[in-house]
Design goal:
Number of strands: 11
Strand content: over 45%
Helix content: under 10%
Distance between the termini: 40 Å
Shape: globular
Largest sheet: 7 strands, mixed
Radius of gyration: 13 Å
Number of helices: 0
Length: 128
């Protein structure tokens, strides 16, 4: 019954911004670590950002540091990815991921070796 639904993707020009949302239904996620991943054509799925259950801790891939910001609103069961200064290499399908009852402050890539739920993905296309 648990579903993660991403939205907010689209096509933008380089330098533009988008805000992705991931809405969780079926359960509250106040004890979940949440992550964003992306997959470009012909490439492996890669970690983009993670956030702890409280929102106090975040972790970003080097490729997006300083440009992307992850946040969460537990009252709305929603996490966000604000993407600024977008580059063509950011073009990918972006996926939301959830690890249930994960309490560690570490929310880097290894925290998402185990993923309980994945979203369906939302396409982001950045033109040069």
């Amino acid at each position: 019954q648990v579903q993660l639904v991403e939205s907010g993707g689209g096509a933008v020009q380089a330098g533009g911004s988008l805000r992705l949302s991931c809405a969780v239904s079926g359960r509250t996620f106040s004890s979940d670590a949440m992550g964003w991943f992306r997959q470009a054509p012909g490439k492996e799925r890669e970690f983009v950002a993670g956030i702890s259950w409280s929102g106090a801790n975040t972790y970003y891939a080097d490729s997006v540091k300083g440009r992307f910001t992850m946040s969460r609103d537990n009252a709305k069961n929603t996490v966000y990815l604000q993407m600024n200064s977008l580059k063509p290499e950011d073009t990918a399908v972006y996926y939301c991921a959830a690890n249930q009852n994960y309490y560690s402050s570490y929310v880097g890539p290894s925290a998402f070796t185990r993923v309980d739920y994945w979203g369906q993905g939302t396409q982001v296309t950045v033109s040069s």
